[in-house]
Structures are given as C-alpha cells and as structure tokens.
Design brief:
Layout lengths: L18 H14 L4 H10 L4 H13 L5 H14 L4 H10 L4 H9 L4 H13 L7 H14 L3 H8 L8
Helix pairs in contact: 1-3, 2-3, 4-5, 4-6, 5-6, 7-9, 8-9
C-alpha cells in the first residue's frame, strides 16, 4: 500500500479574512517553533490568508510578546553557534529571515566568545596542532571563513602569525 502524503489546502474564501482563523493558524505555527515576524507573515500569506489581516494579527502577537524577533534572534544565534557557525554567517541568515539589523547586532554581541568558538571549531576539525605549512593555514582559514568567522576570529584560531591577506 502506498503511503499517503498530506497536502496543505488553501484557505477557504471566508476564512482568509477571519481574524480568529488567522490567529489560530499563526499560533499553530508558533507552537511548532519560533518564527521571525517577517517569516510568520510570509508563511501565513502563502497559505492564502489576507495580507492585511495577517499584518494586523502579527502586530497583535508582537504586542502580546507571543512573537518576539529579539528572542527569536537570540535563540537562533545560540543554536547556530552551538553547531559551530560564526557570526558573519548567522547574521546573513537572520537578515534573509527578515530580522531587523539592530536586533541581529544585539543578538550577535550577546552570543558566545567568537574567537574561542573559532578555535574550538578548528581544533574539532583539524586537531590540536596548529598548522605549520602555508597551504594548511589557508585550507583551515577557508574552512573557518565558510563557517562564518571573520578574519580576526580566524587569526585567533590559527595563530597570531597568520595573515589572511597575503
């Protein structure tokens, strides 16, 4: 027997503008996981709810502190940092999710010690011994850069004599 796949149906015409239906859908999404305000708005509109009613509902949820971009950004930074990602990458992802730049900056600043995290990530991937050869330094620097660490963090992780610009 073939497995049946659940499909999402569009919202019926009358329910698209119903404030209670929009709020119920928003709370159901937030019950699963945190969302940024922009992300929640986009998801509700894509499901067929009225953009005007979604905007009003998201505003009400923000006023009631049920939806909080600062809290979302702090949790996002903590989770991504725990996975070994750096502040540059995390900030870019939060920007794509529609979080305000001031909120992103505050969340990144309240995050972990990025230099020591870069060092931990490098050691986890390449071992305790610092890279000696120039080629190995470059390889490790590119890895850390891909993970989202700045050149200052990379320099702290690889060694003080490493210059990423040469």
């Amino acid at each position: 027997m073939a497995a049946q796949r659940r499909t999402r149906k569009g919202v019926e015409g009358g329910r698209a503008c119903d404030p209670q239906a929009v709020r119920a859908a928003a709370v159901a999404l937030l019950a699963r996981r945190d969302h940024s305000g922009a992300e929640l708005t986009q998801r509700l509109v894509s499901r067929g709810y009225s953009p005007e009613q979604v905007t009003v509902t998201v505003g009400e949820l923000r006023a009631g502190r049920i939806l909080d971009d600062a809290r979302y950004a702090e949790h996002y930074v903590a989770y991504r940092a725990e996975r070994g990602q750096g502040p540059v990458r995390i900030a870019a992802e939060l920007g794509q999710l529609g979080v305000d730049q001031a909120v992103i900056t505050a969340a990144i600043e309240s995050g972990p010690d990025w230099r020591s995290l870069a060092r931990e990530v490098r050691i986890g991937r390449f071992g305790l011994a610092p890279p000696r050869a120039r080629a190995e330094q470059g390889r490790q620097a590119r890895f850390l850069q891909y993970r989202g660490f700045s050149s200052d963090h990379i320099r702290a992780a690889i060694g003080p004599d490493f210059d990423p610009d040469t």
